[in-house]
């Protein structure tokens, strides 16, 4: 009886320690819009969460909310800044006009690959060009998709004239303006809504990187692909400042270690790999893929693309923003990042 009592007391003691440890752990709610089954969720966001938990010895736990379950894609940044989410990841351009200098990375030619784009956008932030755009949150790291191409259900797009009258989903207003200038009818919607819209005939095609085509299962609906890289999409992982301030110094150090260029590069590598895999699936399915080499020098495409760049920079100047300075810094970062990667 005595031994049974001791065993019960020890068991209760260990249970109490476990409960106390669980109670002591801080849980961070992490919102993003990618599907839970996607490689972006698993290979980037889950990988970050596991690494944070391990580095903190279990003092930090990360609860992921994929597929816009905590906040919709276009609301994730504000939800994070306001504390609905502790950490959030979304596309800056989903909040129209909110991050105009960050969106310089979307301009044609700035981010030729996801790997380079991540390095460029993080460099712009690290150099202080984007500070004012994120005064209400604590950015952890930034990155980009690979180049966005054109993917249509039936129409082969060889020149901008082939876009006349086509309803094309655009990710951001900047991309929408360029599509409008080419004669298309841009339709704005977050990526998770595209499949249903295309299935119902609401849109004729999309502008997306290969990663997005695969992630959102659009290879099932599109068969014509034009590789004209007229944008790349910027993304951010950011944290609520109050949530960060509530952490212990040791916990803050863990978050700091999981921020900056190293994690930007991790994200770039994930998106770069997924671009290659997405294109491979289109090839395997026997789809038509038209590649436009050097579009900024291509006789058919260079003028509308250069017009899009100039119009965006003029728009920034009209708002009193140093758009051209940031654009030049982005091009310099692109060259440095490309050399670094090589």
UniProtKB/TrEMBL annotation:
Domain of life according to the entry: Bacteria
One protein family per Pfam: DctP
Coiled coil: none
Cleaved signal peptide residues: 1-24
Keyword set, alphabetical order: Signal
InterPro entries cross-referenced by the UniProt entry: DctP_fam (IPR018389), TRAP_DctP_sf (IPR038404)
Protein name: TRAP transporter substrate-binding protein
The organism of origin for this protein: Modicisalibacter luteus
């Amino acid at each position: 009886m005595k031994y049974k009592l001791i065993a019960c007391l020890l068991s209760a003691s260990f249970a109490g320690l476990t409960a106390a440890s669980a109670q002591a752990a801080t849980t961070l709610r992490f919102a993003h819009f990618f599907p839970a089954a996607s490689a972006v969720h698993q290979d980037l966001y889950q990988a970050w969460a596991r690494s944070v938990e391990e580095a903190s010895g279990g003092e930090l736990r990360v609860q992921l909310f994929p597929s816009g379950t905590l906040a919709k894609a276009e609301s994730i940044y504000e939800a994070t800044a306001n504390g609905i989410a502790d950490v959030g990841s979304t596309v800056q351009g989903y909040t129209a006009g909110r991050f105009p200098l960050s969106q310089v990375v979307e301009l044609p030619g700035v981010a030729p690959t996801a790997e380079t784009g991540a390095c460029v956008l993080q460099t712009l932030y690290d150099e202080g060009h984007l500070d004012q755009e994120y005064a209400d949150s604590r950015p952890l790291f930034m990155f980009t998709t690979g180049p966005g191409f054109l993917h249509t259900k039936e129409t082969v797009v060889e020149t901008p004239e082939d876009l006349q009258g086509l309803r094309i989903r655009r990710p951001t207003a900047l991309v929408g303006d360029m599509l409008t200038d080419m004669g298309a009818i841009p339709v704005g919607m977050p990526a998770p809504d595209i499949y249903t819209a295309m299935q119902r005939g609401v849109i004729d095609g999309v502008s997306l990187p290969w990663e997005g085509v695969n992630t959102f299962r659009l290879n099932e609906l599109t068969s014509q692909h034009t590789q004209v890289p007229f944008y790349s999409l910027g993304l951010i992982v950011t944290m609520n400042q109050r949530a960060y301030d509530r952490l212990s110094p040791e916990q803050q150090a863990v978050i700091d270690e999981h921020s900056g260029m190293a994690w930007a590069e991790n994200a770039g590598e994930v998106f770069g790999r997924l671009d290659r895999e997405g294109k491979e699936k289109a090839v395997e399915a026997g789809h038509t893929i038209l590649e436009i080499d050097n579009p900024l020098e291509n006789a058919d495409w260079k003028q509308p693309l250069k017009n899009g760049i100039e119009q965006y920079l003029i728009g920034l100047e009209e708002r009193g923003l140093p758009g051209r300075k940031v654009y030049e810094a982005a091009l310099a970062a692109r060259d440095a990042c490309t050399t670094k990667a090589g």
